[in-house]
């Protein structure tokens, strides 16, 4: 069985040390576990110069697109990589709107950001930092020729030439929805819930500002202010970038074991220790937040059951508290064993987008989201992921995620609306979730 070659490098807890060298290269991509401040993530991955790049063709069905990705991965070839999360394969993003290629959904929502539904590369190498073993190294797929391996070794071993990067807002962030329009949207959702259309709808509002400079400088500042275990940075072909500070895992597959960790339930951090503990306890014991979380757990159990071995889906963790610099969250875990006739792409197809950011039932909730949010979500609530030639997958839900393109930077905040939701509380929560991100960029 062919095996990946490896080359050790000096360990770095900060992936920017190495990513600086390739961030302007074609197909550059970074998956960032938020170390050392965030203790939940283990691996950072980065790469560039993909063997091939993929995006959906006009009108292409999502499963047909996944078939092309599957063929490309098979063409690269299976390889072993001992104790490595990646042995060569796919890296990239799926926007929330990729769901229109998987499900029957309206196609009338205004697409003012015009982000492609997916941008995915096939990569034959990666630089990986393992923060558990405190090691960093290059992993080369067997197909990568020795000349390219040597070039990459020299690139990451030579002193870095850091290019200065600056970022500043030209105008402050402003919400798309005035408070009155937000209130009317929540009232409409509550009417749908009372009529029996749905149980929960994840409603979001968008904030936008104009900017000048390099989105990479913005990402580094955001990472310092709000480190998270499923962060990432992906430059776009047109000079824009995706800046993700996500705390939420969408799907993971490791040795055929599947895990999803939905977040549902939020409180701000307190101004002092006593207030912080009180807010955390309030969240832990909130019947409303626990009910929201349980609804999404049930939805994910159903989604995972489509691709997992019958009887294997479990909920080993329910209503766990996770705390970040800006918020407390309620998090649960749903697990299963991937069925022998399924693979990770079929798992994604049967579960995308994540139930924690749609509502329940999923399709009806997504129809209501389209009706009331007014514009497409773009990258927000999509996913950044990597999937290797062995079938190993890790992916995020792209919340706390910004899109910088064409001189505009967009950010979204939202939450789950249920029968007893209060529009003013939901409005405050949508701002709480992104306040640290917006304030950090204002200060640059």
Automatic annotation (TrEMBL):
GO biological process, one term: folic acid-containing compound biosynthetic process
InterPro entries reported for this sequence: ADC_synth_comp_1, ADC_synthase, Anth_synth_I-like, Anth_synth_I_N, Chorismate_C
EC number(s) from the headed UniProt entry: 2.6.1.85
Occurrences of domain Chorismate-utilising enzyme C-terminal (ranges): 181-433
Entry keyword S-adenosyl-L-methionine: no
Domain Anthranilate synthase component I N-terminal per the UniProt entry, residue ranges: 13-136
Stretches assigned to coiled coil: none
UniProt entry keywords in alphabetical sequence: Transferase
Domain of life per record: Bacteria
Ranges where the record places region Disordered: 256-278
Pfam families: Anth_synt_I_N (PF04715), Chorismate_bind (PF00425)
Record-level Gene Ontology MF annotations: 4-amino-4-deoxychorismate synthase activity
Keyword Cell inner membrane belongs to the record: no
Name this polypeptide is given: aminodeoxychorismate synthase
Record lineage: Bacteria, Pseudomonadati, Pseudomonadota, Gammaproteobacteria, Pseudomonadales
């Amino acid at each position: 069985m062919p095996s990946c070659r490896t080359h050790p490098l000096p360990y770095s807890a900060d992936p920017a040390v190495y990513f600086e060298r390739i961030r302007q290269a074609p197909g550059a991509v970074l998956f960032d576990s938020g170390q050392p401040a965030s203790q939940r993530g283990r691996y950072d991955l980065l790469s560039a110069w993909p063997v091939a790049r993929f995006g959906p063709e006009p009108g292409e069905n999502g499963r047909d697109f996944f078939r092309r990705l599957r063929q490309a991965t098979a063409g690269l070839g299976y390889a072993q990589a001992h104790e490595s999360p990646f042995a060569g394969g796919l890296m990239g993003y799926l926007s929330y709107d990729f769901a229109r290629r998987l499900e029957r959904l309206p196609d009338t929502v205004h697409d003012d950001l015009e982000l492609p539904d997916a941008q995915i590369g096939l990569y034959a190498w990666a630089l990986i930092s393992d923060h558990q073993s405190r090691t960093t190294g290059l992993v080369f797929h067997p197909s990568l020729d020795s000349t390219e391996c040597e070039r990459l070794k020299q690139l990451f071993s030579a002193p870095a030439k850091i290019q200065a990067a600056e970022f500043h807002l030209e105008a402050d962030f402003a919400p798309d929805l005035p408070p009155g329009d937000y209130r009317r949207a929540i009232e409409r959702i509550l009417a749908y819930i009372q009529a029996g259309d749905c149980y929960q709808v994840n409603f979001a509002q968008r904030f936008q500002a104009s900017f000048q400079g390099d989105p990479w400088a913005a990402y580094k500042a955001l990472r310092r202010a709000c480190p998270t275990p499923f962060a990432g940075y992906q430059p776009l072909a047109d000079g824009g970038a995706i800046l993700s500070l996500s705390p939420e895992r969408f799907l993971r597959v490791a040795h055929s074991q599947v895990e999803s960790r939905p977040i549902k339930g939020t409180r701000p951090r307190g101004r002092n220790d006593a207030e912080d503990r009180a807010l955390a306890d309030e969240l832990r014991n909130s019947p409303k937040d626990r009910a929201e979380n349980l609804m999404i757990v049930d939805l994910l159990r159903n989604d995972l059951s489509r691709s997992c071995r019958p009887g294997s889906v479990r909920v080993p963790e329910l209503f766990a508290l996770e705390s970040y610099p800006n918020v407390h969250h309620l998090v649960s875990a749903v697990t299963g064993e991937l069925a022998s006739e399924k693979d990770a792409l079929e798992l994604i197809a049967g579960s995308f987008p994540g139930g924690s950011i749609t509502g329940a039932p999923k399709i009806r909730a997504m129809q209501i989201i389209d009706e009331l949010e007014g514009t497409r979500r773009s990258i927000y609530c999509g996913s950044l992921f990597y999937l290797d030639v062995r079938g190993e997958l890790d992916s995020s839900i792209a919340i706390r995620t910004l899109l910088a393109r064409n001189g505009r930077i967009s950010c979204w905040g939202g939450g789950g609306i249920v029968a007893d939701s209060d529009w003013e509380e939901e409005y405050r929560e949508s701002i709480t979730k992104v306040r640290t991100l917006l304030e950090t960029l204002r200060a640059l």
